[in-house]
Amino acid sequence: MKFTKMHGIGNDYIYVNGFEETVQNPERVSEFVSDRRFGIGGDGLVLILPSDCADFRMRIFNADGSEAMMCGNATRSIGKYVYDRGLTNKTEISLETNSGIKYLQLTPGADGTIEMISVDMGKAILVPREIPVHSDLPDRFVAQPLEVNGETHTVTCVSMGNPHCVLFTEGIMDLDLEKIGPGFENHPMFPNRINTEFVEVIDRTTLNMRVWERGSGETFACGTGACATVVAAVENGFCPHDTDILVHLRGGDLLIRYASDGQVQMTGPATIVFDGEIDLTHLEKE
Q: Are 18 and 49 in contact (CB under 8 A)?
């Protein structure tokens, strides 16, 4: 299988050109190639495929083999891949995902390759049953108590096509996410498990964030998580609508804008690390 290793500010995946390659049993392949000791190493597997309703289609699998609905960093990376590798010459493209069609604007740099990618992430979802969250609240789950491992936290839940739980606190770099992350991810309040963002407010336009992703553990970045974080920050009164908010993640920075009409825009880079080829015949024998 031929592949390309890419990352969006440290959120790294193995990308496969589905126009040229066919991946059998992508769930198992994702588990194998994501292993950082015995595989290629990454947060999961991304397939770039033809689409009947958009320019391209994305399927994304977490490191544990589960299929994800959406990933903002992978979306940006696909934008760079399809342009830089000649699959399109357009700088405005549409991408089919498991959470709907996303629209990308690609900005080439001086060398002609894509330098920055903006993604129209659609409208944030705040209604608990649509996130989903087990709650009797009808409209939104903002600044609500949640007990995890015997400790009560104040959290806000948002869906950006995948579910997020956002917790505002201090000293996020001192948190042991390996210990506390699974308690949020597998909490009975979240029937589909959940991604969890631990966020420190720096000022009205700057946030620090760490993320525990369902199925992958802590990753260096999460595009949908950064979007959910800004939505939660605005809904809690920490940041304003209609303003570019700078989100610092472990792997780099993203700019997120949450409009008054609920639309969310994400802007950031993507990087090609290397190309390679890996033998998967042993997986076929298992």
A: yes
Q: Which two tokens stand for residue 59?
A: 């399927």
Q: Collapse the DSSP code of 238 into the 3-class scheme (helix H, G, I; strand E, B; otherwise coil) and give the result.
A: coil
Cα-Cα end-to-end distance for the chain: 17
Question: pTM, whole model, 2 decimals?
Answer: 0.92
Residue 112 CB partners (closer than 8 Å, separation 6+):
none
Catalytic residues: 71, 222
CA dist 88 and 78 (Å) reads 11
pLDDT in tens, the chain (286 residues): 999 999 999 999 999 999 999 999 999 999 999 999 999 999 999 999 999 999 999 999 999 999 999 999 999 999 999 999 999 999 999 999 999 999 999 999 999 999 999 999 999 999 999 999 999 999 999 999 999 999 999 999 999 999 999 999 999 999 999 999 999 999 999 999 999 999 999 999 999 999 999 999 999 999 999 999 999 999 999 999 999 999 999 999 999 999 999 999 999 999 999 999 999 988 866 6
